[in-house]
Write a structure and sequence with these properties.
single chain; 272 residues; 8 strands; 8-stranded parallel β-sheet; alpha/beta; TIM Barrel
Length: 272
């Protein structure tokens, strides 16, 4: 069961992939099953902007493991206590507000086993961490290599400071890429016109320049550039500049029909 390793390989080959945030009010197993059937490539539990209890996270992890679906989490802080989430079987992190190389390096150190980091070893506490490997007889280093190869790390780019450090952040071995938070980036840049909508605030020349720079840095470093929160025509334009990972809003309160339609339209407009 190497769904996350395979996802990384697909992105490395240049394939475009589509993710969905998991918001509140969903039944985990039917939700994961439906989103996989629709054709989503990865799921991200939204724990920065919504409340998700540990039992729900565990249920999502169990469903994703049974269905061989990569599942990440966006925790409430980039430096928070999220190691137990990884040890439960979450396949990676979308970390908010990572502005410096030190912040990214600290997260990397806690997310990976040696030689990439210094993650604490608790390999036999969750049945969903090792993809079916038997911890009683599998060589220790084979288990840590399996977990490392099925872990992804996406520090988010949400400020001008983050962009100024992005080349060094993307150069870190173990950082998979970055996912832009356009709303926070627009607020950080400032100069939003009074009365502008959220969509209008993200269509400034400054945002355009920033996303072009992010795409260029990721191409140079061989890392993945992702974003969301734009109309599909804009996402298609960013795909032409090298963005590969696209987040298609939220599933909340079981509203799965909207997710199916969103992905169908995204693939039609952006392509694979």
């Amino acid at each position: 069961m190497n769904a996350t390793r395979d996802l990384k390989a697909r992105m490395a080959s240049g394939e475009k992939v589509f993710g969905q945030f998991l918001g509140p009010g969903n039944d985990p197993h039917p939700t994961v099953e439906a989103l996989k059937k629709f054709g989503y490539d990865l799921l991200i539990i939204e724990a920065e902007h919504t409340l998700v209890n540990p039992e729900t996270v565990y249920a999502y992890v169990r469903a994703a493991a049974e269905l061989d679906m990569p599942i990440l989490i966006r925790p409430d802080e980039h430096n928070g206590n999220w190691r137990g989430l990884l040890d439960t079987g979450v396949n990676g992190l979308m970390l908010p507000h990572v502005d410096t190389v030190d912040e990214a390096a600290r997260a990397l150190d806690r997310a990976y086993f040696p030689p990439l980091g210094h993650r604490g070893a608790a390999l036999d506490l969750s049945p969903y961490l090792l993809g079916g490997l038997d911890s009683s007889c599998t060589p220790f280093l084979q288990m840590t290599e399996y977990v490392n190869s099925n872990t992804v790390l996406f520090p988010q780019t949400e400020s001008l400071r983050a962009i100024s450090n992005l080349r060094q952040i993307m150069a870190l071995d173990g950082v998979t890429g970055t996912i832009v938070g356009p709303n926070d980036l627009a607020l950080d840049i400032g100069g939003i016109a009074s009365g502008a909508t959220m969509t209008e605030a993200k269509h400034s020349p400054a945002i355009e320049r920033c996303l072009s720079e992010i795409a260029r840095i990721c191409r140079e470093q061989g890392k993945i550039a992702g974003t969301g929160g734009f109309p599909l025509e804009d996402l298609a334009r960013w795909a032409r500049q090298g963005f590969q990972l696209f987040m298609m809003s939220y599933v909340a309160h079981g509203n799965l029909d909207a997710s199916r339609v969103a992905l169908e339209e995204a693939i039609r407009v952006i392509g694979r």
